[in-house]
Amino acid sequence: MKKYFLHLAYNGSRYRGWQRQPKVISVQEVLEQTLTKMCKQPITCFGCGRTDAEVHASQYFCHIEVEQEWDFDPVFRLNKMLPHDIVVFEIIEAEAGAHARYDANQRTYHYFIHGDKDPFLQSLSAYYELQYLDMERMKAACQLLLEYEDFRSLCKTPDKHNHTLCDLRKVDLWVSENKERLCFRFTANRFLKGMIRLMVGRLLEVGKTKISVEDFAKIIEKKEPEPLQKSAYPQGLYLAKVEYPYLSLPTESLFVPMLNEGLHFQTV
Questions:
Q1: Which residues are catalytic?
Q2: Would the pTM of this model clear 0.90, i.e. be above it?
Q3: What pLDDT score does 149 carry?
Q4: 241 DSSP β-pair partners
């Protein structure tokens, strides 16, 4: 029995997330069914994490175990068999004890927003009114996030986690010159359920002057989720990079360069 890591990406628009669920389509289910057919044995994919419905991954890893070696190019054949919205870049032989989820020590997510309605971006980026955003306030709020480690108040299901501590290592804000497109980028050792979409929702409230930076700090320090707080739309969110002590590969997604074009880093 050999273990392999699959390096892949997917457009999550038509999926109910990564994880297999009854009566709905998931990325895991489609990948497992395709691998089972290709390998002629039951295959289970162990993913590096969960993504919600309509959320994308420009880099994702899962591991599988296969009984026999292939006498054909598995990457080419797998991509021919998979639907158009899932792509496998590499299949990498791994050590017997390697685990796609538990060994990951750093993850990066991107959240893309556009302010001009665009039918070609609608499923790949979140559409918000941007012209009245105060970028300086949002930059200050991004910097503020780095001062905290307990994000219980920005978690959808805090009681389902052993703890709500996260080592948030980097928060960036990228903006186009006309300020009609922007991207938040978050890097941490781990993220909680719904954490990024709740953070983006709050950052946009700061930018719209609905709450102050000080109010944002109080929300975090309260360490208890507020009722009815709004999550940002799912389609803007991408799992963008997953790193391991023994593996760190550049993102090779085919659809994200279009979204990054014209964005400039705003110092925070």
A1: 52
A2: yes
A3: 97
A4: 108
